[in-house]
Amino acid sequence: MKKKNMRKIDKILEMPQEVCSNIPKFTITGFEEIIIENYKGILEYEDFFVRISTHIGIVNINGYSLNLETMTNDDIRVSGKIESIDIERLVE
After folding, report:
1. H or E segment and range at residue 72
2. Rounded Cα distance, 92 and 80, in Å
3. What are the domain boundaries of the chain?
4. What does pLDDT average to in each consecutive run of 10 residues of the chain (92 residues)?
């Protein structure tokens, strides 16, 4: 089935876009925690810097005392003192 038809079905069923695609969803709680759903993998991990690959680009998380708290096939949770988050968008 083509993407256009899938989008129509998703819209009719009122499905959130991140559920039916590879688009990541970011949930940020203050400066203490970020949860990334639909991630691809971890590129780098230090206690002051984490790089995570997603289908739209690379997420860079800067801070200190950063920990990878929870990892599943679908989501990852990073906690600690987050100072900044930036995304390197993939060029298509």
Report:
1. none
2. 33
3. 22-89
4. 55 56 89 95 96 96 96 94 94 72
β-bridge partners, 89: 57
- Looking at residue 91, its pLDDT comes to 78
Backbone angles phi, psi at 3, to 5 degrees: -60, -40
Contact 22, 38 (CB under 8 A): yes
pLDDT of residue 60: 98
Q: What is the pLDDT of residue 18?
A: 53
Write down the residue that tokens 């688009």 correspond to: 23
Contact 77, 69 (CB under 8 A): yes
Torsion sign over Cα 55, 24, 64, 80:
negative
Q: How far is 57 from 55, CA to CA, in rounded Å?
A: 6
| CATH code for residues 22-89 | 2.60.40.2000
